[in-house]
């Protein structure tokens, strides 16, 4: 359990940054045509979320390595991983320009709900079964 707290703090910081970056990118996409706003896809900023998400995943794997939890024994962790996959798919759909705005808004809201579930499971670690 050495370095557990440091790894957990970095993981949590990256999680908050990831949610913030997703929200900002989605809002910029939704407002860009009307306001002639910043096009994040054409700038070097577009790589920042990938770096944050890579660090987030690396810290998650490090937590699994040093922590006492196993995804198939601790059911909350397995469900959290499943919600993460669903979040990635919904987030990708929300940021896909070829979909209608209403569909993208629905995917973004669903992605944020999935994130709320992920954060809940991470915080409270309920006994599900």
List keywords for this structure.
single chain; 129 residues; mainly alpha; 4 helices; 74% helix
Low-confidence stretches: none
The number of distinct structural domains comes to 2
Number of E-type strands: 0
Note the total helix count: 4
> Please, what is the average pLDDT?
91
Shape: globular
What string gives the helices and strands in order? HHHH
Indicate the structural class: mainly alpha
Distance between the termini: 26 Å
Percent helix: over 70%
* Biggest beta sheet summary: none
Rg is 16 Å
Q: Work out the strand percent.
A: under 5%
Topology:
Blueprint: H1 4-35, H2 48-66, H3 75-94, H4 101-124
3D architecture notes:
The protein has 4 helices and no strands. The protein is mainly α and about 130 residues long. It folds into 2 domains: about 70 residues; about 60 residues. Helix 1 runs antiparallel to helix 2, helix 1 packs antiparallel against helix 4 and helix 3 packs antiparallel against helix 4. The longest helix has about 30 residues.
